[in-house]
């Protein structure tokens, strides 16, 4: 990619490209070449203070929260246009900064970016921000007010997509935003900031400050932020929720998952398994909503394992710049070590490696793991209970529908899931029993961004996307109206 996209010298603060307060710089390492391919400044607490101060001033004294919703909608629509022009650049940067296979970029990195800004532009024009209520001789005006300054903290697996999930509805609500992209993949969000600047977002309404854990914690606890919107690990989410609790600060969390796909006995197992394997390998398995537990009727278990292993063997692994490749590298060496550790744990616990399990022999450089199928998995094993975040699929047998539902729900998580059935009505009946935030029947995923996304249990708190995503950035207020007002 061009140096102007990969080597950044400034932050975006208060409507300007601002020099950092400190001199520390972070080298961005390509997961496929293991070489430095870019660089960004690292935010200090002083930089976070400047960004929050700019957002605070924009919210408290600027025009943005006082504009009519239709005026904000016009800016969001222009942002969608500006982002569409940058889709190729966003995809290219993420291939280099976090190893996303270019074949996956339209789905993971750009597919729900411009479309999301268009969606919230339209919703802002039609949303009921105010309503009048009458009870006898009493009247009230119920208004939905922007929550304030939002700290948007995003992970490395889909950095611009997940920033947009927070920024677009926050802007539609009238909030100001400070985005902290992840240190592993900090570059692509600069393109989001450029697009929003081009669209005419007022100074200070959007700010961008890459940084590490210290900067993130300072942003979360900063008295100038009113809400934290976070996507990331459950462990980090618990820490953020604890910190927000000390200040009674609003928080929304989209966290980990260990989602189950239930394959019923009337499903086309041979046809379903390649789809499930491909889905689990999307973004090298680094997807919170991936269906990483496949629950299979014991009567068809051997058939399913054979089909899954055959499908995994056909998955192309290699250079993420190659359009023919499905699975690129993991984001970092530590992530590969984590995934390899889980595979070893599975084998030690009695699971069988039906496919993969090691490093691809033809890829001596880069942080790759073979697409791996684990058979004979019991739901009590750590590999069935903990999020691996790699190209690993667990196959678990069950006896009867009730046991399938019990196993699916026997998890600390509840983010996504699926049911595969020959009879869709039967599939729907099973889907209604699974405790999870979203679920697909026969691969029919809900129509995001029109509907909410989020999790039950340790998969998070609150919802993103849909009207619910807008409401999460609004505070309802009731105003009593005297009869004399007319």
Automatic annotation (TrEMBL):
Keyword annotations for this protein, in alphabetical order, are:
Oxidoreductase
Superkingdom as given in the UniProt entry: Bacteria
Residues of the active site: 254
Residues forming the Aldehyde dehydrogenase domain are 17-478
Keyword field contains Nucleotide-binding: no
One Pfam family this sequence matches:
Aldedh
Q: Which Gene3D superfamilies match?
A: Aldehyde Dehydrogenase, Chain A, domain 1, Aldehyde Dehydrogenase, Chain A, domain 2
Q: What family is this?
A: Belongs to the aldehyde dehydrogenase family.
For this entry, the protein name equals Aldehyde dehydrogenase
Organism name: Actinomadura rugatobispora
Identify the taxonomic lineage of the organism of origin. Answer: Bacteria, Bacillati, Actinomycetota, Actinomycetes, Streptosporangiales
